[in-house]
Amino acid sequence: MKTLLRQAADARIADFGMDTITLAGPLEAKLAAMKAAGFIQVMLSARDIVGHPQGVDAAVAAVRASGLRVTGFQVLRDFEGLSGHLHGYKVDIAQQMVLMARALGARVLLACSSTSRHASDDADHIARDLRQLAMLALPHGLRVAFEALSWGRHLSEVHQAWEAVARADMPNLGIGIDSYHLLATATALDLLEEIDPAKIFLVQLSDFLWQETRTPEERLETARHFRVFPGEGVHSEVLGELVRRLGAMGYRGDYSFEVFNDDYQQLPLPFVAERARASARWLAEDVLRRAVPLPGALRWGART
């Protein structure tokens, strides 16, 4: 029975993927390390694609050759709430992001709430811009996940992002949930009950090593340099409850480990990827505790 449970947990690791942001080195090495650790999906950073020494086409070819499924593509920043030439500029940027996401076979484009001092806080203006972004993505079969940054200028919590998405009311527009931002703002998990689970397009997971971040500046600094994998930080209980609640709500989508960590950027890729695998096992075995699937589903990469 223990062997059966372990096999089932391995199958459920297919629900979890890594973000290329987490690893150092060239794109091909990152993809190989993820695959060697047993992951079957990857969240791609635009910097890893446009920064490829042979260009974007070579990066796209490397992703396709890896055999990893592309969870999503990130990140479009500071899109909503702008006017005039600033808005026009961001529309051009968004169009290019959409085209790259399509070329990569991404399911989701991640956009995060604006930090610009030029952005309006008008709810209708924000909804109008998010609606336009979704319309840009729609012909390409792409969904847009809108995420609230914990240091966002007007939208800094997940329920605020949800209100903006609901107001925009587009079929391919939903929200992205990042556990780091929930932990940083100490957002009550009860607020997740307001969200339509069918509109959660992506969940990103990470933790950090101290109890709280008091200011937007501290949240930003921690987010970009000191994140760790789920199970490695001091918020494991809350993070585990988040994943359980999402499952109870009916979320059956992907989870991606988005771990910005300066130490991990200086360490061998296999070492970091194995830490990610250990985190996925912790979530699958100790947190989710789903029923054992039928024997035919007990294989690496099976969806349950």
Automatic annotation (TrEMBL):
The keyword Isomerase applies. Residues 32-284 form the Xylose isomerase-like TIM barrel domain. SUPFAM superfamilies: Xylose isomerase-like (SSF51658). It comes from the Bacteria. Pfam families: AP_endonuc_2. Keywords: Isomerase. The keyword Zinc does not apply. One of its GO terms (molecular function) is isomerase activity. InterPro entries: IolE/XylAMocC-like, Xyl_isomerase-like_sf, Xyl_isomerase-like_TIM-brl. PANTHER family: HYDROXYPYRUVATE ISOMERASE, XYLOSE ISOMERASE-LIKE TIM BARREL DOMAIN-CONTAINING PROTEIN. This is Sugar phosphate isomerase/epimerase. It comes from Ideonella alba.
